[in-house]
Amino acid sequence: MLSLYRVFGLTVASELTLTGLPAGSGAPDITVRLGTVPSHLPNPRGRGVLFEALPGAYLLRVDDTARFLARDGCEVTVAPSASADPRRLQTLLLGAVFTALLHQRGSLVLHASGLAGPNGAVLVAGHSGAGKSTIAAELASRGYEVIGDDAAVIVVGDGDELMVQPGLPQLNLWKDAATHLGLDDATAQVALPEIDKYIVSQPFAFVRGPHRLAAICVIELGTGDEVVSEELADSERFSVLKEQTRQFRVMNALGTNSSHFQLASRVAAQVPIVRIVRPLRHEARQQVGDIVAALLG
Amino acid sequence: MINRDSVVVRSSRLMSADVGNAVVVLHLERSAYFDFDATGADVWRRLEFPVRVSALVDTLVGKYDVTREICQRDVLAFLQDAFDQDMVQMATDESASADSATQGR
């Protein structure tokens, strides 16, 4: 029995029940089925501890949860293990596995949260712990709509414009960040028991459709006490996008470098990219929020 | 070794894109990425068609505030590095097309 969902601008037909996603309609772009998945790919072009990949195929193996095989940007086979936690299964499917599918489809997938304002979409990129989700929550609490958390999907739209597709309608916040934002346990749902993160969807508003990409911020933790921002020089822009690409090694092994290069270099050439260096303390989120809000309009 | 009489051209196994004044390059077979700042990008753009190193140096000396000696040294270092990374190849002469340049390597 297949249910239809909508995420990242795609209609997904899935045998696996997915929670928290809006319903989809029409012909599916991606089909997720339960089935058998091999433990290895023949002659993978790249591999990591948990994955193997070659052009057209991506295998993810997480022993206590499932094996996943993603093919040709449109098909996923899932073989769950007996003890699989359904939340973890969904996190892996919509995270690592969908990132591989999106690479196969020629999208640019950045490690970024996204917000929408009058100027369009502003992405907040950065390494884990830089505060992407916290900043997104700060802006969401100021009334901006959330595009997504942790994964931002950029495509070329029908009008040949750079567009950001809506992600999962939730934010993943560290417990202390949720507390600082005044989001108590009643609105937060514990994401995964072993990490201290909350999945939060209320009381925020999430976009339903694509938004034109207006700007990208890259957040870094600095040693100083002030928040400092600067627009990146031409020579830094592409390498920052490359660094912020989700699963860059997987993308290399999938052999989709040329479409990644075309899209990333176009974004680098056309979209303002601002580096924001912030101190660790929580209060800095308001100043960082002001900078992002100015870009959102 | 590349010298002042060499004729050089970009390798055909690349994608290249302008980002403002800078240029980014992907080597398709090696999945290797390179970027050039404004000056490097200016030199890179002049390698789209085969060019003799001495002629390239002449052009750059006319454009930048640099002595011929230093310009030639820097250009040769840049080209040798690019050649070692398979981003630049030798061509037979300036009139050669990119295709025949590949064969003439």
Task: Describe the structure concisely.
The complex is a heterodimer of chains A (297) and B (105). With 297 residues, chain A is of the alpha+beta class.
What structural keywords apply?
heterodimer; A: 297 residues; alpha+beta; Rossmann fold; 2 domains; 8-stranded mixed sheet; 7 helices; 20 strands; 33% strand; globular; B: 105 residues; Outer Surface Protein A, domain 3; 3-stranded antiparallel sheet; 6 strands; disordered C terminus
User: Hey, roughly how much beta strand do the residues of chain B contain?
Assistant: 25-35%
Briefly, what CATH class of the largest domain in chain A? Alpha Beta
The CATH topology of chain B? Outer Surface Protein A, domain 3
N-to-C span of chain B: 13 Å
Q: Largest contact between protein chains?
A: A-B, 16 and 16 residues
Mean pLDDT of chain B: 87
Q: Main β-sheet of chain A: number of strands, strand sense, barrel status?
A: 9 strands, mixed
Count of individual domains of chain A:
2
Biggest β-sheet: strands ordered side by side in the sheet of chain B? 5-1-6
Can you give the helix content of chain B as a percent range?
40-55%
State the CATH topology of the largest domain in chain A.
Rossmann fold
Total domain modules of chain B: 1
Our count of helices of chain A gives 7
Return the CATH architecture of the largest domain in chain A.
3-Layer(aba) Sandwich
Tell me the radius of gyration of chain A.
19 Å
Write down the oligomeric state. Answer: heterodimer
Terminal residue distance of chain A: 44 Å
According to DSSP, the number of beta strands of chain A is: 20
Structural class of the secondary elements of chain A? Answer: alpha+beta
What is the secondary structure topology, with strand pairs?
The complex is a heterodimer of chains A (297) and B (105).
Chain A: E1 3-7, E2 10-14, E3 30-34, E4 46-47, E5 51-54, E6 57-62, E7 66-71, E8 75-80, H1 86-104, E9 108-110, E10 112-117, E11 120-125, H2 132-141, E12 145-148, E13 152-156, E14 162-165, E15 171-174, H3 175-180, E16 188-190, E17 197-200, E18 211-221, E19 228-231, H4 234-243, H5 248-254, H6 257-270, E20 273-278, H7 284-296
Parallel strand pairs in A: 2-3, 3-8, 11-18, 18-20
Antiparallel strand pairs in A: 1-2, 4-5, 5-6, 6-7, 7-8, 9-13, 10-11, 10-12, 13-14, 14-18, 15-17, 16-17, 19-20
Helix pairs in contact in A: 2-7, 4-6
Chain B: E1 7-10, E2 14-19, E3 22-27, E4 32-36, H1 38-45, E5 51-52, H2 53-63, H3 68-84, E6 88-91, H4 98-103
Antiparallel strand pairs in B: 1-5, 1-6, 2-3, 3-4
Helix pairs in contact in B: 2-3
